[in-house]
Design a protein that fits this description.
Elements: E1 3-8, H1 13-16, H2 30-45, E2 51-56, H3 60-73, E3 80-82, H4 99-106, H5 108-116, H6 127-134, H7 153-176, E4 181-186, H8 188-199, H9 203-206, E5 217-221, E6 227-232, H10 236-247
Helix pairs in contact: 2-3, 4-5, 7-8
Amino acid sequence: MGDLVLLRHGESLWNAQNLFTGWVDVDLSPGGEAEARHAGELLSAEADLDLTVLHTSVLTRAIHTAELALAAAGRSWLPVRRSWRLNERHYGSLQGKNKKETRDLNGDELLLLWRRSYDVPPPALPADEAAAQGHDPRYRDVPPDVLPATECLADVVRRVVPYWEDAIVPDLLEAAGRGGAVLVVAHGNSIRALRKHLEHTGADEIVDLEIPTGIPWRCRLDEELEVTSAGYLGDPELARAAAEKVARQAG
């Protein structure tokens, strides 16, 4: 099979401010732009990696990351497919709130439940805010009853896996015929959902998987779409440190 590369967007402006972001459309911080360019350099350094198609969410931070990374890799011309199904997890009424302040207000146990439980979503957006989200033109073709007002990771898995099967797998099959690779630029939780499906990870384990920003994860798949090898590109210590930085965001 062709290779699959998963890349979490670079640090966003709200990541830098330690705010819950979810579906709020914020751009990259200057540091995130640098991470995206470095990701492109890592991609171009893989002599046997022939990227043939790009998939992203419909959120600016993922789109901007992909543009900067592919420019640095000399692959700006790649065909692109975008889907709301690759969006970050919807954090409901937590969106826009500071993570440490939310911890101080609600306690460690409740914050951990909202952030890291597999099947417990945060409090939902108020009805009027959820309705306003539905008027965003990027979701005009999505049935209103499908758009979330909050999500747990299990919800993200339920929306990501059909996109994997219907859109990404066909591109992998096509890429395999010419030794190519598919690049997916998305978010911490949508990538976590993809890796849960690919690696058959249990619900109790996947919630502890930290996804670093701006570092490509490459995996090779066999004909049954089973992972035969996988790892982050570049310095493994840099990937480990970046994952630990993500884990410390709530304090």
